[in-house]
């Protein structure tokens, strides 16, 4: 097997004396969508935060494109090409849609290319073009998720970490968001690590999935196989 694009090896992490991850290992092949599933508090967000440099692992390594990144600062990791779309969106609510998108490109110097990318993310999300001058706080939940995803695209990422994009959104909007996840992956070749509570949907878009419980990987496999796994069906797919 060729070397994974991103790999986490035996990573442990804690918040003060609360241990959140114990020896988590996972691999994301280049160009694929990998899902990370698990109940509330299982350690999914912590795993993403370790990759993006927001939480320092106490043990283990994180490698991206062959290089160790677990000692790099978060802004350096963004420049390496890994961008996180955080849980709850965390858009800049008082800024316009355009300003939010421009913030996504803050680390880039190529202003002409930034302007072109702004145009192309608006092609991907026409709703954002219609609302380009509007304050982000006035967008619907689904539009805010689109904005957070589009803002991540403005950094020209090679990999996106998505934290529960479906949270709090109506089923139809969730379908649209997942359709864009597929498009980003297929048309732009972006590798995606997707954290989701909606296991059914996550297993339908990903090639491989890991299941976390209490800070440990308890199951992993091809998503198509996990969809039919009896234990997964009982615990995550509603029987
Ligand atoms: P959720 O779906 O609820 O976001 P999760 O799987 O993403 O859950 P994490 O947010 O990674 O889980 O949390 C893992 C563990 O670490 C939990 O026990 C949580 O209470 C704890 N934890 C997370 N963030 C902090 C923090 N900032 N300070 C203290 N403990 C934290």
UniProtKB/TrEMBL annotation:
Superkingdom of origin: Bacteria
Domain ABC transporter residues, every copy: 6-239
Entry-linked CDD domains: ABC_TM1139_LivF_branched
Gene3D superfamilies linked: P-loop containing nucleotide triphosphate hydrolases
PROSITE patterns: ABC_TRANSPORTER_2 (PS50893)
Keywords: Amino-acid transport, ATP-binding, Cell membrane, Membrane, Nucleotide-binding, Transport
GO MF annotations in UniProt: ATP binding
The keyword Ribonucleoprotein appears for this protein: no
InterPro entries (UniProt xref): AAA+_ATPase (IPR003593), ABC_branched_ATPase_LivF/BraG (IPR030660), ABC_transporter-like_ATP-bd (IPR003439), BCAA_Transport_ATP-bd_LivF (IPR052156), P-loop_NTPase (IPR027417)
Family membership: Belongs to the ABC transporter superfamily.
PANTHER family named among the record's database cross-references: HIGH-AFFINITY BRANCHED-CHAIN AMINO ACID TRANSPORT ATP-BINDING PROTEIN LIVF (PTHR43820)
Name of protein: ABC transporter ATP-binding protein
Organism encoding this protein: Castellaniella denitrificans
Source lineage: Bacteria, Pseudomonadati, Pseudomonadota, Betaproteobacteria, Burkholderiales
């Amino acid at each position: 097997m060729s070397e994974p694009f991103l790999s986490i090896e035996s990573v442990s992490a804690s918040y003060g004396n609360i241990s959140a991850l114990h020896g988590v290992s996972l691999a994301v092949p280049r160009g694929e969508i990998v899902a990370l599933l698990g109940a509330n508090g299982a350690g999914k967000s912590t795993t993403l935060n370790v990759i993006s440099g927001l939480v320092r692992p106490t043990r283990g390594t994180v490698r991206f494109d062959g290089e160790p990144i677990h000692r790099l600062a978060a802004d350096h990791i963004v420049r390496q090409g890994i961008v996180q779309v955080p849980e709850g969106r965390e858009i800049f609510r008082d800024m316009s849609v355009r300003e939010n998108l421009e913030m996504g490109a803050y680390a880039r110097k190529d202003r002409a290319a930034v302007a072109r990318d702004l145009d192309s993310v608006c092609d991907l999300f026409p709703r954002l073009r219609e609302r380009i001058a509007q304050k982000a706080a006035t967008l619907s939940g689904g539009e805010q998720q689109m904005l957070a995803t589009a803002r991540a695209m403005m950094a020209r990422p090679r990999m996106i970490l998505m934290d529960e994009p479906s949270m709090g959104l109506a089923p139809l909007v969730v379908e649209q968001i997942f359709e864009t996840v597929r498009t980003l992956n297929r048309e732009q070749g972006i590798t995606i690590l997707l954290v989701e509570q909606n296991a059914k949907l996550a297993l339908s878009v990903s090639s491989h999935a890991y299941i976390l419980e209490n800070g440990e990987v308890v199951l992993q496999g091809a998503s198509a196989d996990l969809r039919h796994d009896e234990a997964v069906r009982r615990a995550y797919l509603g029987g």
